[in-house]
Amino acid sequence: TLPSLLLLPPSLLILSSSPQSRRASLKPHSGHRTASPPSSHPPTAAAMKPSSPTPAVGTALHLVKTPNFVKFAAVALLSLSVALLFYHHPSFPSAAFSAFTFASNSSPTAVPANSTSIAANTTSIASNSSSPSSAIPKVKKLPPPPPSVAQRTGIVDENGAMTEDFDVGEFDPSLMEELRDLGGGAEETEKRNEPKIVKYDKFKPCDQSKIDYIPCLDSFERHCPDSTLDCIIPMPNGYQKSIPWPRSRDELWLHNVPDTRLVQDQGSQYSMSVKDDKISFQDGGSDQYLNLVSQMVPEIDFGHQTRITLDIGSGIGSFAASLFKYNVVTLSIGTKDVHKNQIQFALERGLPAMVAGFGARRLPYASQAFDLIRCSGSGIDWTVDNGVLLLEVNRLLRAGRYFVWGGPQVDSNHELSLEDQWKEMGDLAARICWQLVKKEGNVGIWRKPLNNSCYLGREIGAQPPLCSSSEDPDNVWYVNMTACITPLPKDGNGGNVSVWPARLHSPPDRLQSIKMDAMISRKELMKAESRYWNEIIGSYVRAFHWKEQNFRNVLDMRAGFGGCEPFDTYPRSYDLIHAAGLFSDERKRCNFSTILLEMDRMLRPGGTVYIRDTLAVIGEIHDVASAMGWVVMVHDTSEGPHASWKFLACEKRMP
C-alpha cells in the first residue's frame, strides 16, 4: 500500500527488484502468450545465462542502469505517491512524514524480507508512469476549511464591556451533585431549593380601634405582643394628602390627626389654633429662646459646631422647627399616652420625631450621638434613682458638648420648688463632672468634659461610680439604664468631629471603635459607600422625578453607615421608605408579610416604597405588596438585566 511504500528508502524502491523482474517489465508485448509448463529437470548453467540482447534492448537496459535514471524514477514515484496520498486523504496525519524521514535516515542495507514484492509493484508503477498515456493528473488544491467560531460564554465582550448577548454554556447537573455530596450538604440544599409557593390573598383592613396603632409600645416601654399585625391600618375619616414642606411646618390638615384633644385643651400652651379644616402653629417664642441660648454660649455655634440635637419632651416640635433655620437637625422624642400625642403633630408637620419612653431602658441611640441635648417643661425628675436619667443623657451627649435645661415652663409639675430643683440639679451635674457654663433666668447650660481626667480625679467611693469596662455604651436594644458614668474613649474618639458640613464627608476617627469586618480600611469603606449611594440617589432623582414628589419624611431601613431610624412611630408618618437588602437579610427570622405590613402602617397614603434586593426574594415581596393594594413595578438595577439584584418601586395610592 502507499503508506507501506513510504517506509522504504528511495534507493531501495528500484534496486531491490531482481534482474529478471526488470527484464520482464521492459520486454515488449507481442500478442498472447501461453505459460510454459514447469520443467521437472533443474535448469542448466547455460539455460540460466541470459541471452545476448538486441542492440535496442541493450541500449534501453544501459539507460535503465544509469544512476541518473534511477534517481529520476525514484523522485517521480515519490511525487506521484505524495500527490495521490493528499488527494485521496487530505486529513492524513503528519505522522506519515515522520515515518518517511525516519526510513530515509535508516541504513540502506536493512532491507525487509518482503521488499522484493513491494519493489516489483513499484517498478510496475514506474514503468507505467513513463508512458504518455499515463500522465500524472493535476491535483486540485482544496480551499482551507472555514475557521470554527467558538461560542462566547462570558458576560464581558472583547472590549471588556458588559453585554446582554452571551451564553452560559452547558451545565452538567451531576457535577453539582458531586459537590453537594463532598460538602455534606445535599439534604440541606435539597430542602432549601424546594419551591416555596405561598399564595397571598388580599389583606383586609384593621378595625377602626387600630387607627393610631403603634406595636410593641405602651406609654413608657417596648413590650411586643405575641401576635403580629395581619391587616391594613385604616385611614382617618376625611384624611387628605399631607401639606408639602415648608408649608407643613406652619399648618396641617385637621382630620389627618385623629385625636385633637391636645389642641382643645393645651392649644394656647403650644401656640396652636384651629381654623376651618386646618391646625395652625405660631412661633410661640422659640426664636427668642434660641437667640438667648446663642448669646449665653456662643461656642454652641448652631449649624457648624452643633448639627445634631435631641429635644426630650419636646411637645409638638416647635424647638426643632425653629432650629431648621440654623441648618440644625433636631430629633424630638416624647411619650405616648391618652392625652399627649404631640409626636404625631410633629411628624405631620414634617419634623424628625419618634415615640420613646424615657423610663427604665436606654434610648435606642449610640453613645456620643448628639452635639446638644435640650429638655424644658417635661416634668422629668432628673435626680431620682441616683440620677439614672441624667446619666443616660450623659451617655448620649458628645464629649465637650452642651446640655440645656429649663425655659419658660421649667418642670412646673415637679414636687419641689423651682429653687430646690436647681440646687439638686446642680449638685448631681457637678458629681458627674459637668461644668455649669451659664445660667440666666430659668435657663441653664452645662458642658460635658472632653476626657476622663475629672472622673479619675474624684474621691474614692464617689457617687455615681464609673461604669464597668465590660459594659458596652453602644448596646442599646432592650438594655436597662445603669446609674453609672460612661467613661470616654481614651483616644478622644466621638468628640473629635469636624464642623458641619465638612463632617458629612470626613470619616470620623470613631469608626475605628465600631464593630465591623474591616480592620484598617474603614474610612475608605465609608467614602466608597458614600459615593455609591450618591450615584444611586442621583439616579432616583432623575428617573423618578423627585423634584416633583415633595418627599419630606423619609425612613431608611437597614441604613448601614447612614444612621438609625426606629420604628416607634405613629401610622402614616413617612412619605418614602427605602430598604436595601433588608428582606434577604431577615428572611430566616421574619415573614415578609410582617415586615411589609409594618411598612404599610408607617407609610402615608400616596407614599412610595423603594426596595433593592436579590432575585431570590423579590418575587415574594412583589406578591405580598400586591396583596396589600400597592402598585408595584419591577426595574433592573444599574448593573443590568442579568444582575442578581432587582429594584422594586411601590406606590400606596390614595383610595
TrEMBL record:
EC number(s) reported in the record: 2.1.1.-
Positions of the UniProt region annotated as Disordered: 19-53, 124-154
Enzyme class: transferase
InterPro entries noted in UniProt: Put_SAM_MeTrfase, SAM-dependent_MTases_sf
Localization, UniProt: Endomembrane system; Membrane
Family indicated by similarity: Belongs to the methyltransferase superfamily.
Residue ranges with Low complexity bias: 34-47, 124-137
Top-level lineage group: Eukaryota
Designated name of the protein: Methyltransferase
Keywords: Glycoprotein, Methyltransferase, Signal-anchor, Transferase, Transmembrane
GO molecular function: methyltransferase activity
Pfam hit, one: Methyltransf_29
Membrane disposition: Single-pass membrane protein; Single-pass type II membrane protein
Coiled coil: none
GO CC terms in record: endosome; membrane; trans-Golgi network
A biological process term (GO) from this entry: methylation
